[in-house]
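Hello again, I could really use a second opinion on something today. For a while now I've been wondering how a particular protein folds. Please have a think about how the structure follows from the sequence. Here's the protein in full, and shout if anything looks odd to you:

***
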Amino acid sequence: MRIRRLLLVLTALIGSGASPAIVSAQATGDQSSLVFTISLGAVGGSRLWSASPQAVQFVNPADTFALGRRIRSTLAVGFGGAYFPGENVGFTLEGFLIGLGFDTSCRHLFSSGASEMADACQSIQSKGGAATSVILSGGSIFRFNSRKLFSPYGRVNAGLVFSNRSSLRTTGQFVNNSLGEIQEVFVYTDDHSSRVDPALALGVGFTAAVAKGYNIRWEVRDNIVGVQRVTSTIPVAGSVPPHERVFKHLFSLTVGFDVVLERRRGRRY
């Protein structure tokens, strides 16, 4: 009987001493949250390169073209997640589908009279090029008033852009009447059909709570992507032109939907 009473007393003492510590840990340590986001929006374009006059040695004397290329505007889709160990600072991982398709212009500067070259220039002019490029990045995010209805934030992401379309390769087509087939004119070629370049993103926006654990997100972002551009013409068409990597600012506006998982009072997400 005495042993049982002693055990009961010890249990009560331990419980009374441990409870404040547990409550304190729950009050101060369990503030982390996970945010999963899917977003949709638009990305603006930008001028990329121009080359003129570019000789095309198909006939003699050679026709010359004035060529230009710009990054086209397109839709953007994003998938990402953020971990907030506290109220304000978080860490993000994201995949951002940015497109990086191109529109190419061609103006016939000098014509030898060959209709084939006029047709080839026209085919370059009318040829648009969609692409599937994605930026994989990670970074940090800082938010304010995370417990309020509206919460503004800013982010910095760094990563890589993976592109499946060459920004250098330029080709045209014409119909060879004697052979009765379509022939291709290679103005610029490229040894790489796909490339990997660095990317940086600077974004600001805000979230609005629509229900417990769900937010709507608006964000404006400057996507700074590395892309190859032609730097000068070449004496003989059909080879890789001089080129360099430049960083282009592609601004985007997206609307997203968040699912927020929080850890509070000792419970898991």
